[in-house]
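task queued by scheduler; priority normal; single chain, no ligands, no partner chains; default sampling; output format set to structure tokens
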Amino acid sequence: MFPFKASAILIEQPMGSFYIVSLPARLLLEVGYSDLLTAEATGNAEIPYRLRGTQREPQIKRFQEIGAYIDRDDSAFPNSIIIAANMRAEDGLVEEEAVLNAHMASLPGANDDEIKKAEVTNPINRRWTVNSDETGNTTLTIPTGAKLASIIDGQHRLWGFSYARVASRLNMAISCSIYMDLAKPLQAQLFATINSNQRKVNKSLTYELFGYNVEKEEAPEWAPDKLAVYLTRRLAADPASPLYQKIVISPRKDDQLYSIFDSRVWRVSTAVIVEGILRLISSNPKSDSNELITPEQKTREIFLDKKSRTDRSPLRLAYVKGLDAVIYEIVKNYLAACEKVFWKKATPTSFITKTVGVQALLDILRKLSIEAFEGKVIDIDYFEKRLMKAGEIDFSTDFYRNASGSGRSAIRQSIESAIQAA
């Protein structure tokens, strides 16, 4: 079944861009998951898949009803199942290209799984990709059956296939709306928006499914990815931010970014900034969310407990102590320094304003933020001085042309070499 390829249609809407794709139910059961449920292959032809996870009796009954409907000769599911692709079930972080395994493991805050991945020779690339050919045809590629498809809406329909008894129904084509690299808080927002406009939703439902209330929560209760989304939105809306009006919810690929928006102004995907900030404060946001999500709604201070897991993220202490304003200033001032040193003089062909360039700069921040926070020197001048020696690098040369993970590594390594020699 893998690698699986399917034609895709790019859809542009105010909330963000996504792809419409037809996928077989069997494949969706293989790659899909929610925080509550996943489908596991049984090897039994009569019952090919069995659900695992937290199930209530009413849910099981509902799945059985849907399974019976799927078996009917007139079964139909014209509405799309909505998916966030490339979101890892194990830690809630974005799945990067395999070529970046060593790169990611070498950065401050790398978690144990990422370090183990770097030790694997000839790693398999699991990341979903979308590419367009010279004729404009767009293709989605799903390389493996890894569970990287977080189901935002349509879970009951999908899990109902686990209870279907007509085996051929697993080959049924399902319409899917696929968002690439969409952070969990944005998934919850999308789910709430869809369902509140269609029918009254139990306010706790987004909390149960995604770990987030769409109702206002106090900042001390925010999980790392919710804070990362909040700070990203501030960077996009703050006129003093170098990324003011430059952050958009869209695919990470630059050709899509430039086709959707005015190509004279460079843009960056929300996913890139959210992930960059998230990596500063958590090495396992899913674990953090699980610890915070309790009936009594705990605050971040629980992570000060010695029994809490060890997290080596560079600004972890700032997050735990609720120093959100400090985290924001560090990120904003660092990006302002990047604007002065790199972006202002970048040519249209420079890769420093492309996705790989911004990712590489955020990788550098993971190293510089440690000394900045500990030394309590977080102004623009400090970061500008640290980056200045790298300002003479021409990032438009063929050496950086690879827009994949190796391009990101090359940019990061060039900047590191320059600032270390300073």
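post-processing summary
- The chain has a mean pLDDT of 88.
- The chain is about 40% helix and 15% strand.
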